[in-house]
Amino acid sequence: MEHVFSIGKLAAASGSKVETIRYYEAIGLLPEPERNAGNQRRYSARHYDRLVFILHARDLGLSIDAIRQLIDLSSHPDMPCHDADEIARRQLEDVRQRIARLKLLEAELERTLSDCSHGTIAECKVIETLAQCGACERHQRPPR
Amino acid sequence: MEHVFSIGKLAAASGSKVETIRYYEAIGLLPEPERNAGNQRRYSARHYDRLVFILHARDLGLSIDAIRQLIDLSSHPDMPCHDADEIARRQLEDVRQRIARLKLLEAELERTLSDCSHGTIAECKVIETLAQCGACERHQRPPR
DNA sequence: TATAATTCCTGTAGTCACTAGAGCTTCAAG
DNA sequence: CTTGAAGCTCTAGTGACTACAGGAATTATA
């Protein structure tokens, strides 16, 4: 006899939300569960497993689309692992880039804050710093 | 005599996009520019400055709402700097948390990939890892 | 067992910060 | 003067949810 969950219990057990679960069902990530006599969803352990898989992958920053690919892959257990590997590798690359970028931001915010003389807005280095381009290469020189 | 830009030139000079500029105008972050006889937007250096301010702040991860607050602040130059300071400080805190979180993800993805035996999907550690909760505290124990 | 409180249902709309497209007008180069 | 690029407005789409309205079903309490 399997455990059977209401959507609320499944949300609580998995650490997600009722609305999110219904959303994952609507976009086809979670299979449609059985319904009881009163039309309420009744989930099994299989649903729990699938949901935890999705939540982990989301936590790791994978897009819904990447997760869909992984789920498709796992329904072909004879295929080589290469594609799943590739998805994880791309994600790792992405995460590393995000870290590098955020560290630059951290440094710039630290500088911005340490420069601030705590006077009035007119002298505020926070605003001033944002208004200028120090080492930034995004724009051309101001066109004066 | 001031430089005057078309929206396309402003986009190119600032490193943003035409649509983004119109969007910032629509939500009230950029003041409405003058129009020429043919109803086309004509921007001045003031607009360029404001746009660069916004783009920098967005690059630093500030929300549109935080930027709006900073702009409001800067129109009251006599107020103390404290509020602007606080916005930057909160943002720094946020960036640091994001870095910490991403580093955990990086480690988990590295582990996932190094475990992968490159066999078939059935043995794929990438998928397996996502399906389990190793050290994760998000959910309760599986309810079997 | 009756009622009250909670949970669940569907469907729609809202969020954020843009981005893309349709269908038209205006501008600039040759 | 023609032609093609750039501009205009307005609407809808994106991703990944989140929130609400207005009911129906279930569960807890008296």
TrEMBL record, chains A, B:
It comes from Mycoplana rhizolycopersici. Residues 4-73 form the HTH merR-type domain. Keywords: DNA-binding, Repressor, Transcription, Transcription regulation. Pfam families: MerR, MerR-DNA-bind. This is Helix-turn-helix domain-containing protein. The keyword Transcription regulation applies.
